[in-house]
Hints:
Layout: E1 17-19, E2 22-24, E3 28-30, H1 40-48, E4 52-56, H2 76-94, E5 99-105, H3 111-120, E6 125-129, H4 136-139, E7 147-152, H5 155-169, E8 176-179, E9 186-187, H6 199-213, E10 220-223, H7 229-238, E11 242-245, H8 259-267, E12 273-277, E13 283-287, H9 290-296, H10 315-319, H11 325-333, H12 357-365
Parallel strand pairs: 3-11, 4-5, 5-6, 6-7, 7-8, 8-10, 10-11
Antiparallel strand pairs: 1-2, 9-13, 12-13
The structure holds flavin mononucleotide.
Amino acid sequence: MLQLAQIPVPKAPLPPLKIRHHIAHYPVVQGAMAVRVSGANLAGAVANAGGVGVISSLGLGLNSSYSSNQPKRGSFFEANQLALIEELQKARALSPTGIIGVNVLVATKDYPTIAQTAAENGANLIITAAGLPLNLPDYTANHPEVALVPMVCGLEAVQTICRTWQEKYDRLPDAFIVENSKTVGGHIGTTCENPNSGIEYLIPQIQNYLQNHLKVDIPLIAAGGVWNRSDVERMLALGASGVQVGTRFITTEECDADRRYKEVHLNARSQDVVVVPSPVGKPARALHNVFAEKAIAASPNLERRCIANCLQSCLCRDGRQSYCILQALANAAGGDVENGLIFSGANVGRAERILSVAEVMAELTSVQETLPD
Length: 373
Ligand SMILES: Cc1cc2nc3c(=O)[nH]c(=O)nc-3n(C[C@H](O)[C@H](O)[C@H](O)COP(=O)(O)O)c2cc1C
């Protein structure tokens, strides 16, 4: 029989997350995951479950019906654009009233076109990463309803973006996603030089700048290392208005990656997480496999053929070093889990089975305290 002290006390509901005029029932943003790990299926499911679903736009054209080896052939960049429109339509069909965002990488060559296409085709939010989006408002000028949300890993990036946008556009971002460099999956610190500050320090520091210096209230969303409701509460207690969750959504039925990719994540332990060099010139957090070992050793056996010329600056294309990141990520998500690059947050190793997105959202937001075993 339960002792009085063991009787679970229902928790208070989490506050909603308001970004511009979009209100998500839960303060949970699903992190973008390339290539096609977070497509329409995952984003639509998260949006339906009351969070913000996010489509990762990197390399969507690859292996799509618009890619150059398919009947509707076109250039890689055209294929990306058409595949993004298709992906947005699919996500909207899955979640007609949910909040759907598109993640756009500033470091890619088609960043302006992809941002513009996302705004024109019904994205509620544009989230940027891998660089400072200093001209983003230009690309979405005809769509004031679209919220603009840069991802940052330090105060300096926030200051530069705010100053530039105020001067050039008389506006500020609608929210910031603040990266916890110690835990996030994928690239680490693509918007700052020294990505070592802890989130416990960054959230209050950025909040202090926005509230006391700029006198504005801009929601901050903490990204990295969030697994359950107590992690969400910890981030809210720091002053964040929400969290961004990536790795936890990989082991879901709705995640767009191949089943083998999800199973590798399901079976991984925290000691399998490694940091690999990447052709963008920044380190990236990933799971140990044959590919990661070769990347760490800078093996001459790595495939160095640039398949799409996707990045503004790329060690593989420009310096014949490293590897083609698009190919490596697409291989893994497509099921080649030994010869592909499997991005992962440090938080891996806690999933016990593949869950539905609704179940994961319940664990992130539930008002019921789970009983001790
Ligand atoms: C497989 C994978 C792919 C990712 N791809 C992207 C991406 O394309 N764009 C981006 O901004 N962040 C990307 N990220 C980072 C996530 O969006 C998110 O910020 C991060 O994973 C949050 O940390 P967590 O995984 O500990 O929850 C990726 C992360 C993973 C695990």
